[in-house]
Predict the structure.
Amino acid sequence: MKDEKVLPAKQDKNGNFIKRLYDWTRHWARTPYGTLALFIISFCEASFFPVPPDVLLLVLTVSKPKKSFYYAFICSLGSILGGCFGFFLGYKFFEHIGLPILKFYGFMDKFEELSITFNEHGLLAIIIAGVTPIPYKVFTIAAGFCGVSFYTLLLASAISRPLRFFAEAGLIFAFGDRIENFIEKYFNLLSILFIVLLVLGFVVIKLFH
């Protein structure tokens, strides 16, 4: 099984640390514990861990395309449950745990704007975060602190995370490792296009009701 670059880490002041985490995440695909690691990393990423589970998901699906949708299910389940845990951190332990996490990801200067967004478009905002490269844990923690309904968070997670992970797994299943570099290169663009279509869908539904 090859070990190609998947969603490379951004190089910033923490670049070396993040790069090591990416490499550590990918290495689980070469062990008998790849599936378990995928679940745990998906859970942790939705609440505090910096490396997206896509890194391991894509390596696993490339190595075993026939299990692509199984891996997507494991990844989705872990991420949904992790989002619930992130919500709990924001709801009960924001000052001691949630706040440092938000500061780490540089979202404190936008927190007031984020709170307003939750009040106006809670479900849609979380769905968008769940599909795009925006750190999902920022939204799950903030949702708990801002008083967003837990069921809104759960519904948004149940919609957005499978959409993201099953789409990636489906592309690998259909095209094999040829599509891996395409996903890596155009993931942000694909996410934006999906969100545009999603928002247009909400607008159409609103117009006809």
About this structure: The CA atoms of residues 116 and 122 lie 9 Å apart.
